[in-house]
Amino acid sequence: MNPYALSLARNVVVLSRKSWVAYLPGALLAMLGCAVALVVGQCHWLAGWAVAWVVVLAAFAAALHLGSLVLCADDLGVWLCRGMLPWDWDIAVTGVSWQDFGRAEFQARFPDWLQNAHTIRIVNRHVSSGSMSLTHMRNSRAVVIRLNELKAERT
Predict the structure, then answer these.
(1) Strand order in the sheet with 101-107
(2) What is the 3-state secondary structure (H, E, C) of 45-91?
(3) Model pTM?
(4) How far apart are the first and last CA of the chain?
(5) Nearest to 15 by CA among 67, 76, 78
(6) CA pair distance 28, 24, nearest whole angstrom
(7) Tens digits of per-residue pLDDT, 6-59?
(8) Pairing between strand 77-82 and 69-73?
(9) Residue 122: which residues within 8 A CB-CB, separation 6 or more?
(10) Distance in angstroms (rounded) separating the CA atoms of residues 47 and 4
C-alpha cells in the first residue's frame, strides 16, 4: 500500500516549515570551519582537505535535517514531522492530540518580527511539560491563527 495514500486519508495539512533564519547558524559555522581548514591546510594540505570535507558534509547534513522538519495537522492532532518527501511525513517526532491541545501562540520579539520567523508554542492543556516550542517557523502568525481555527472546528 502506498504510504502517501495513508497521509491523504488522514487529511494531513502542512502548516509550516523552518524559516531561512534557522539556517544561519549552520552557515556561519561552516564558514568558520572552512577558515580553520585553510589554516590547517597551511601546515599539511591533506589535513586541510580532510577538515574542509568534514565541515562541508556536516553543514549539508544539518541543512537537510532542518529542511525535513514540517509542522503538520491531521485528524488526530498537531505534529512535528520529519521527512524529505510527503510520504515520509508519517514519522512524527512529537505532537499534541486535539484532545490535549490547549491553544497555539507565538512569541512576538523584535528580532523575530524583523525576520518574520517567530517561535510557535503549542500548549498541552493537561501537562505543562508536554507543550511544543518551535523556533524560527515560517509564517508563524498565520499558522497560529489556522491552528486555533482547526481546534475551534473540532470542539
Answers:
(1) 101-107, 117-124, 132-138
(2) HHHHHHHHHHHHHHHHHHHHHHHCEEEEECCCEEEEEECCCHHHCCC
(3) 0.77
(4) 33
(5) 78
(6) 6
(7) 344 467 788 899 999 899 999 999 999 999 999 999 999 999 999 999 999 999
(8) antiparallel
(9) 78, 96, 101, 104, 131, 132, 133, 134, 147
(10) 45
| CA atoms of 44 and 141, how far apart (whole Å) | 51
What is Dmax (Cα atoms) for the chain? 67
Sign of CA dihedral 47, 50, 54, 60: positive
The set of cell numbers assigned to 52 is 574542509
63 vs 44: CA distance, rounded Å: 29
How confident is the model over 124-142, as pLDDT tens digits?
Answer: 888 877 788 888 898 888 9
DSSP structure string for 90-102:
T-EEEEEETTTEE
Predicted pLDDT at 91: 65
Three-state DSSP class for residue 51: helix
Angle between helices 24-43 and 45-67 (to 10 degrees): 170
Q: Which residue has cell 523575530? A: 112
66/23 Cα distance (integer angstroms): 8
Is residue 5 very low, low, confident or very high in pLDDT (cuts 50, 70, 90)? very low
